[in-house]
Write a structure and sequence with these properties.
21% strand, Arc Repressor Mutant, subunit A, Nucleotidyltransferase, domain 5, 15 strands, 3 domains, 5-stranded mixed sheet, alpha/beta, 13 helices, 388 residues
Amino acid sequence: MITDRYTLRENNEQLVLATLIEEKSISRAQISKMTGLNKASVSDIANKLIDNQFIHEVGSGESTTSGGRKPILLQLNKFAGLTLTIDLGYDYVSYLVTYLNGEVLKKETLSIQVDKSSCLEVIQHIYQEQRAAAEESPYGITSLSIAVHGIVSDNRIVFTPYYDLDEIDLYGTLSEKLSIPIYIENEANLSALAEKTFSTTVSNLVSISVHSGVGAGIIVNNELYHGRDGRSGEIGHTILYPNGKNCPCGNHGCLEQYSSQKAILAAFQEAKKDDQLTLYDLITAYSTGDTIANELIKNFALYLSIGINNVIASYGPEKIYLHSTLVTEIPELLPLIKQNILSSFSVPVPIESSTLKESGILLGGAALSIQEFFHLSSLYLGPNKMIQ
């Protein structure tokens, strides 16, 4: 029970703002009807939000059948601030700038070998560059979200298998240098948050990211599930083959040593005796009927289906999303994965290739920044014009 008047008012403000964001354009009377708050309270809250430049009036709606004055419509002021998200891959850095409605303003990817020294320099450079471009916005860059390919707990990088960012206090160092809130989060978690914010209204979902490793972002009752010390969703480190290949986590036979894009590319390079081959060379070889590529893709589908089956049996999600260049670029891969999933627990669960594609991680960071800026526990913005 809420007993503090300030807390009650804050919750009412969040309810009004969340309703306004989801409905895009809505009148005070409609907000009152949808939230159950009286019209005077809604009007008072709306005026405060207007004063803070969070929302603005955008014209008149349709009058009721009984006539009378047309209602004034309210809308989120997307130009009030900007979000900045940086994705730290092991061999690239991507960044995304959005308005406060998630609409993309700028996206760029840099080819760079990421380590504990190079990442600090590139993050500060990107921030300073985008901060200068955001000076005309009332709130400027509202916060910085950073995606890390590893385990993260409360802004602390616990474990990174493919670079050394767990050896530095990235949050502490950046907090001393940058004058904005900073959020460091696991990349699979951000992908899941992106699906919840831009793709679906289901309350429980799992987003599986297949990149250098294999990770799962888990949404339970509309909120990210982190587990102890941020260790939930590390499905890449579940055991596929006991006493199998060595994994940087210390185990042997981990799923991602067989079904990550990094692993399948390494196997392709070894088979072809060419370490310069890329993932797209593998995709091209598969499309032309190359025997080695065909066998690797077939095994990839089988191994990944085992991981998906285990996730569904463990979490019982309403929907599964896959974030993988291979699944996106090879249309027959998704049906092949589904064919390998036979459990009565798993068959009814929809499995989809993410329409957000490579923007999923970055859009998840934007969603996190927007939620935190407006103090919302959950957010749904729906599809918009996004750079893929």
